[in-house]
Design a protein that fits this description.
The complex is a heterodimer of chains A (552) and B (524).
Chain A (H helix, E strand, L loop, with lengths): L5 H17 L3 H17 L14 H22 L14 H24 L6 H26 L8 H30 L15 H16 L8 H9 L1 H4 L7 H9 L9 H31 L6 H32 L17 H7 L2 H12 L9 H18 L4 H25 L9 H24 L3 H12 L13 H14 L5 H11 L3 H18 L7 H5 L1
Helix pairs in contact in A: 1-2, 2-8, 3-4, 3-5, 4-5, 5-6, 5-7, 5-8, 6-7, 11-12, 11-20, 11-21, 12-17, 12-18, 12-19, 14-15, 15-16, 16-17, 17-18
Chain B lengths: L24 H6 L15 H14 L11 H9 L10 H4 L11 H4 L1 H9 L30 H18 L1 H7 L7 H16 L4 H10 L19 H14 L10 H7 L14 E7 L3 H14 L3 E7 L13 H10 L7 E5 L8 E2 L5 E2 L4 H17 L8 E5 L7 H18 L5 E4 L1 H4 L10 E3 L5 E3 L10 H16 L43
Parallel strand pairs in B: 1-2, 1-3, 3-6, 6-7
Antiparallel strand pairs in B: 4-5, 8-9
Helix pairs in contact in B: 2-6, 8-9, 11-15, 13-18, 15-16
Classes of the chains: A mainly alpha (552), B alpha/beta (524).
């Protein structure tokens, strides 16, 4: 299910009501949220086609569940110790086997539903099995890791190896579904393509699972219950496109019962509607110029291609930040606060600053689970640059199974390293150059923005030839350009400039407007909500959901 | 009144699976008598937790004190401006604010524990805060930016309902599944009907008009019913226009004769200095295939090419996008009329067909097939070149990994093929042959001429990826070279991009076994 749909609006009204009614009953509330997330993931109201739910995914996930359960049993038999307590307490094997039995139950129920429900099951069913399987596997790893920690939660060789094993298992899921085809075709491996459909949200939930096990392994976190972890991993607001929330941020909010009399509605409304405008109106409109230009840059003039590359930078920001704005707003309406994910990224005057503002939860993840384990900046100057570069390249690769994403990461990683070098040299300079500070900042901003735009070209292009076609066309344009029919170039230009200017509006302004809106009588707020929905729908493209995707 | 639990945490049992141990208020829910939930069993947090529990002892329902008679009253008082709920402090509740890394587990849960303590779980909560809907007019929140959940629900629900009424026409326009998915469309129709009764759609119509510079929206003028220009009218007009322009030597007065008299198109030999103009268009499958064909033909130096993909379109839903009209007005009579047209429909067409006056045909019924054939026929007719100087390659829809859709596409391809036989300037291209296993079944990946197996489809098993688009594009160029003299360029087939030479088009598309005879009739 996607946020900007009528389906989701209806779904959310039901979940919102149910959530606040059930909030005083923590266990029922958790099951309710878990069930809602499963419905969200399955998207059962969509008309879909029958696909066998038993494919290669199912045996693989089942095998991993069985193996990790066995590993967990073995470990906890061997080291049945709670590092927080002085005494040792044996774990009951029945308790360990229980989730596995529950899982078999889920599969059985799924089969029954498959037979009963008039809409046939589709690949989302087995993807849900994968999602729940990942939740189980990581939970068993987390409890095993915790049990193998030394007194005072000190790391032990066993805990280190278990954490490594968990990360390898998680990454192998990711590799299998996301990267296998790329490696097979790139290195011409003698295997048939598997034709796997990438499970929805797989990289997001695997990253969150990895962070959980690592945090436990670092002794920063005590394992939470299986139910809590599953609720956390599947929670629909952050399931599909982030933000990447941590257990340490999420779990306390599960335990804390939010006050039903003080829902932070004004901020949530502001986030949801801002997100809808960005996602439905701005991003969709810009796409109508970006798509044809990137499809065949040779058909357009240099100026048009340049505008399209700027437009893409804005489009991806509007699209992604719009979606996470909606996610944060939706969660806030349920009384759960997510970390901020975007903070006016195009106002950044350095790449480092950009990464503090763009997809903040991912850069935080990369910092804590990739950059720091690589050694961060503590292993000498050269190693720092290498670590920066590697982190960004791997982060780029995470975005998709295509070498163009690696180049995108390399541009950012290289840029960060170069920038660090220049800054150090700049700080050591003997005397100031006499250039006024605003001018320096403006130049820094301009350079940063264009490095980011250059990287986006590789991010968007379908292959290297396409990227170089686009870049080449900006500088060498020959032949008569085609006219762009569907959108007005002037409107695209204005949209790009307006969105860039919006980056410099202090964050306090929308907050104040939201609070002001919250002071209106409810009836006026109803009118405001309705008017916003009508305007967004009217200015969104007609038929925003392609038929083909809508039907399957 | 239940007894208070001991102000210490229960013995740590470790995290047992599927049991919210750690915060242990599963226990509180199952046994409401235990008013205070147990804290997370983390030594560092225990002292603080004790304080919280102690506070609960003083104020909770378990120990009614003089200043706090009942929880209900307490809630009222708090709602009127008091600050009874520790957790309602925005700072305390924001578990993880932006960028700040929340402290790990036990410590981060402190505010939670405090909130849990104040009201026992199991106590009924009035999410309307005891106010009800009557306060919609004069409710003012005690705290800026915050409202009771019930009020939020009322605002969101009412706002959505109003927006639903105002947007009703547009929603119906977008609701694209008339008969496949009847309940959805039926709801949209009912809403639009009600909304139009009370003229609730007026603001939206005014907005749409303002957006379109005073005009009604071009596409989708019908609200789920067909009001577009008929393809037959376009075909008749096309024939009249062509004759008026002095084209077609042997054109007779009736359409039948004109078609029969159409000659095999004479396409001039393109050279680099005078390239032919190629137009490729259709539904979203052309999104990948169109640019690929553009590149392949442009690289010969003998063509200029444009691609015109319109996602989600076809010939069934004229109310959504009127292809016959677009082809005739904007392509054939556009700024640069094409010498060669490559056209592909079908993947969106297996759905109910709305007709004028709220009528419609369910997909793949005999009437549906007959009407679809009529539209194909009329469209093909309207594409005839003025002096029979245009070649149209009509592409069959590729196979999909989807049984229901496949049943329809077999029938559509039969219609395309059999209609193409009636027009000398239309050449049917058997797309499925290049994207299927040798036995004709669906294949997502196939070996190319270099023997290497390539994935040809996008992840939805319907659209083509770049490799699939290249493979079909090269096949179309080969097909073109059968009708157009391309000897001015050397067509070197890259073996890693083209299908092996063993892959051949079928000589004819078989008539489906249960084909109704009535679906072969055409009105000229």
């Amino acid at each position: 299910m996607l946020f900007p749909t009528i389906d989701f609006a209806v779904f959310f009204l039901v979940v919102f009501t149910g959530s606040w009614v059930l909030r005083p009953r923590p266990r029922q509330w958790r099951w309710f949220i878990l069930l809602s997330s499963c419905v969200f993931y399955l998207d059962i109201f969509r008309n879909k086609d029958e696909v066998s739910i038993f494919s290669v995914t199912v045996p693989v996930v089942t095998a991993l569940i069985a193996v990790s359960a066995l590993v967990s049993v073995a470990i906890q038999r061997a080291v049945t110790r709670d590092p927080d307590a002085d005494a040792t307490e044996p774990m009951s094997p029945v308790a360990l086997a229980a989730p596995f039995l529950v899982f078999i139950g889920i599969v059985a129920v799924t089969r029954q539903l498959y037979a009963l429900y008039p809409t046939p099951a589709d690949e989302n069913w087995r993807n849900l099995y994968l999602l729940l399987g990942v939740a189980f596997v990581n939970q068993t790893f987390a409890t095993s890791v915790f049990a193998s920690l030394g007194p005072g939660r000190a790391r032990t060789p066993a805990s280190r190896w278990l954490v490594r094993l968990a990360v390898v298992v998680d990454l192998s899921f990711l590799f299998f579904f996301k990267y296998w085809e790329l490696f097979r075709s790139t290195f011409n491996l003698p295997f048939q393509p598997l034709n796997l459909v990438l499970p929805l949200a797989i990289s997001f939930f695997l990253f969150q699972a990895i962070s959980y096990v690592i945090d436990v392994g670092r002794g920063e976190l005590r394992p939470i219950s299986q139910l809590d972890f599953t609720v956390y991993l599947t929670f629909f607001a952050h399931l599909v496109a982030g933000p990447i929330v941590r257990v340490s941020e999420f779990h306390p909010q599960l335990s804390a019962r939010a006050d039903p009399r003080f829902v932070q509605s004004s901020e949530a409304f502001m986030l949801v509607f801002r997100g809808l405008v960005k996602k439905v109106v701005v991003a969709s409109y810009l796409a109508q110029m970006v798509d044809p230009v990137f499809a065949l840059p040779a058909n357009y003039s240099g100026g048009q291609v340049l505008l399209a590359t700027y437009a893409y930078a804005i489009q991806i920001y509007a699209d992604f930040s719009g979606y996470t704005d909606i996610a944060i707003g939706v969660a806030l309406l349920l009384g759960i606060r997510f970390p901020q994910n975007f903070d006016a990224p195009y106002s950044a005057a350095s790449l480092q600053d950009f990464w503090r503002r763009w997809h903040m939860t991912l850069s935080r993840w990369l910092r804590d689970y990739l950059y720091i384990p690589l050694g961060g900046n503590r292993r000498g100057e050269v190693r720092t640059y290498v670590n920066l570069f590697l982190t960004m390249v791997i982060g780029g690769f995470w975005h998709g199974a295509n070498w163009t994403f690696v180049v995108w990461g390399a541009i950012h990683g290289g840029g960060l390293a170069v920038e660090r070098r220049i800054k150090e040299a700049w700080a050591r300079r003997e005397r100031p150059l006499g250039v006024p500070r605003p001018v320096v900042v403006a130049i820094q901003w301009l350079v940063t923005f264009h490095v980011v735009v250059l990287a986006w070209v590789f991010f968007r292009a379908r292959d290297f030839a396409n990227a170089f076609d686009v870049l080449g066309r900006i500088f060498v344009s020959s032949g008569a350009p085609f006219t762009i029919t569907d959108v007005s170039v002037a409107v695209v230009g204005i949209a790009v400039v307006l969105l860039l200017l919006s980056q410099f509006v202090p964050p306090d302004v929308p907050r104040r407007i939201a609070v002001l809106f919250g002071q209106f009588p409810p009836l006026l707020q109803i009118v405001g909500v309705a008017a916003a929905l009508v305007v967004i729908d009217a200015f969104g493209p007609e038929g925003v959901a392609p038929f083909i995707y809508f039907r399957f | 009144m239940p007894d208070l639990p001991p102000p210490t945490s229960p013995p740590d049992e470790g995290p047992s699976p599927f049991d919210p141990a750690g915060d242990a208020y599963g226990r509180a829910a199952s046994a409401p008598s235990e008013a205070a939930p147990a804290p997370p069993p983390r030594p560092a947090s225990r002292p603080v937790v004790k304080v919280a529990v102690a506070r609960s002892a003083g104020r909770g329902p378990a120990a009614p004190a003089a200043e706090d008679p009942t929880p209900r009253d307490r809630a009222r008082r708090a709602g009127a401006g008091g600050d009874g709920w520790a957790g309602s402090d925005p700072e305390a509740r924001s578990g993880g604010r932006a960028g700040r890394r929340a402290p790990a587990d036990g410590r981060a849960g402190l505010s939670g524990v405090a909130v849990d303590d104040v009201v026992a779980y199991g106590e009924p909560v009035d999410i309307f805060d005891g106010r009800g809907l009557a306060n919609l007019l004069y409710f003012r929140s005690a705290r800026p930016g915050m409202m009771p959940a019930g009020m939020v629900l009322a605002i969101v629900l009412c706002g959505m309902l109003v927006a639903m009424m105002v947007n009703a026409d547009a929603t119906l326009r977008k609701s694209n599944s008339k008969c496949n998915d009847c309940w959805r469309h039926a709801v949209a129709e009912a809403v639009a009907y009600t909304s139009n009764l009370i003229h609730a759609t007026a603001p939206r119509q005014a907005l749409d008009r303002a957006r379109n510079g005073g005009k009604e929206p071009d596409t989708g003028t019908g609200t789920g019913t067909d009001q577009g220009l008929d393809s037959s009218e376009i075909a008749r007009q096309a024939e009249a226009d062509r004759i008026a322009a002095g084209g077609g030597v042997a054109a007779g007065p009736s359409g039948t004769v004109a078609v029969a008299a159409a000659a095999k198109p004479a396409i001039r030999k393109p050279v680099a200095t005078a390239p032919l103009h190629l137009w490729v268009g259709g539904d979203s499958i052309v999104g990948a295939f169109g640019p690929a064909l553009q590149k392949v033909v442009s690289d010969t130096g003998l063509f200029t090419a444009v691609s015109d993909a319109r996602p989600s379109t076809g010939l069934t839903r004229r109310d959504y996008y009127n292809w016959p009209k677009h082809l005739y007005d904007d392509v054939v009579h556009g700024g640069s009329p094409p010498d060669v047209m490559v056209i592909m429909f079908g993947s969106n067409d297996v759905q109910g067909m709305p007709l004028r006056g709220n009528q419609g045909y369910a997909e793949l019924t005999p009437e549906w097939l007959q009407e679809y054939r009529q539209r194909v026929h009329d469209t093909m007719k309207s594409l005839r070149g003025k002096d029979d100087d245009r070649l149209v390659i009509w592409m069959g829809a590729p196979k999909t990994g989807n049984a229901r859709l496949e049943r329809g596409l077999e029938r559509l391809n039969y219609i395309y093929w059999s209609e193409a036989q009636k027009f000398p300037y239309i050449v049917y291209f058997d797309t499925p042959a290049f994207l299927s296993n040798p036995d004709g079944s669906y294949a997502a990946s196939l070996p190319n001429a270099d023997g290497k197996v390539q994935l040809l489809r996008a992840s939805d098993n319907i659209h083509l990826n770049q490799a699939g688009a290249d493979r079909v594009a090269w096949a179309v160029l080969n097909k073109l070279s059968g009708s157009v003299d391309l000897s001015a360029a050397s067509l070197v087939q890259p073996p890693d991009k083209v299908a092996p030479p063993t892959v051949k088009e079928r000589p004819e598309v078989p008539r489906p076994a249960d084909w109704p005879d009535s679906a072969d009739q055409i009105n000229e």
